[in-house]
Design goal:
Layout: H1 9-17, H2 46-68, E1 73-83, H3 84-89, E2 95-101, E3 107-113, H4 114-124, H5 139-159, E4 165-166, E5 170-171, E6 184-193, E7 201-207, H6 209-212, H7 229-232, E8 239-243, H8 250-254, E9 272-276, E10 279-288, E11 293-300, E12 310-311
Antiparallel strand pairs: 1-6, 2-3, 2-4, 2-5, 3-7, 6-7, 8-9, 9-10, 10-11, 11-12
């Protein structure tokens, strides 16, 4: 299987470095499917996710126009899914990272090449917004950007309903409050234009999938996860239930015999982890009722808001 991301870095670089419309020189052809690059947004939810991303971009354009005091066009060319680190690598260095944190849902980050970020800051300070030599922001420019980020957070709250907080401006780094480097995100390819800029300039908008989807809604059906869902359904995986803590002496281990009980020094309701191929997918506790035993899930990978769901073990199946 291929190891390439769903959108290859050279494809994104082509969009970021060219004034031609994206896809103008790209013919339809088969693309590699890599299991190492999981889809954070399943196909059945992509239309809904893109609609919300378009609302975020509209709010961003409105804020840029009001901040600059002139007409600034912001266009969403496409939405792709990439790992955060791979997306960062496609933008020309130095990359100015303007992040917003949204708690457990992740966050957003606007990735601007310095050649675009510097003219924008110049516009906000009342300048013409012309071309500038790429470099990292100064301390004054960072403070201007952080005040702008606070305004962006407020705009998103009012216009899109996203609750987020401004964080520090970074260079060449995406904060963990937004996403880990290997975490798949929705990536919006943006084009910005204003008269003094002399043509289109491109940027990336990274958005955590949880901010684009209604996580409180039903989970996607297996057949909505992609064309490989059905053949992969029969692939065996190793599942282990692991207690987080417990000690036993060497003497107790030496005395173990069939049907002998080994007691751990942990409470009956101590949390345990369910690991699939070594990766933690669930954390929960067993709760006993007069007529049944239920698994109370306190954390599930990729859907923290579903905590507290109860799952009854199958008849005869060990939890």
């Amino acid at each position: 299987m291929g190891h390439e991301p769903l959108l290859r870095p050279e494809e994104v670089s082509g969009v970021l470095s060219s004034d031609d419309p994206p896809g103008a020189a790209v013919e339809a052809q088969p693309q590699p499917y890599s299991l190492r690059e999981p889809l954070a947004i399943p196909p059945a939810s992509q239309e809904r996710a893109q609609a919300k991303l378009e609302r975020i971009v509209e709010a961003l354009g409105s804020l840029l126009r009001s901040t600059a005091g002139r007409e600034v066009e912001v266009t969403l060319d496409a939405m792709q899914q990439m790992r955060a680190g791979a997306a960062l690598d496609t933008v020309a260095s130095p990359v100015w990272v303007l992040p917003l944190a949204a708690g457990s849902a992740g966050g957003l980050a606007l990735l601007l090449p310095a050649a675009l970020a510097l003219p924008l800051v110049d516009l906000w300070l009342g300048g013409p917004g012309g071309k500038a030599e790429p470099r990292p922001p100064t301390a004054v420019e960072s403070r201007v950007l952080e005040r702008w980020l606070a305004s962006w957070a407020e705009t998103l709250r009012r216009r899109v309903g996203i609750e987020a907080q401004a964080t520090s401006v970074l260079v060449g780094e995406i904060p963990r409050s937004v996403a880990a480097s290997d975490e798949p995100l929705a990536v919006g390819l943006l084009r910005l234009r204003w008269s003094e800029q002399g043509g289109d300039r491109s940027a990336l908008l990274l958005v955590a999938p949880a901010l684009l989807l209604d996580e409180a809604g039903p989970l996607p059906r297996p057949d909505a996860l992609g064309p490989l869902a059905e053949p992969l359904a029969g692939v065996p995986v190793a599942v282990r239930v692991v207690l987080r803590a417990g000690r036993v002496s060497v003497a107790d281990l030496l005395e173990l015999e069939p049907e002998k009980i080994l007691r751990f020094d942990v409470a009956e309701d101590a949390p345990f982890e369910v690991r699939v191929e070594g990766e933690v997918c669930l954390r929960g506790r067993l709760e006993r009722a007069p007529d049944k035993t239920v698994l109370s899930v306190v954390w599930r990978r990729g859907a923290a808001k579903n905590a507290g769901a109860r799952v009854k073990p199958e008849e005869g199946e060990r939890p």
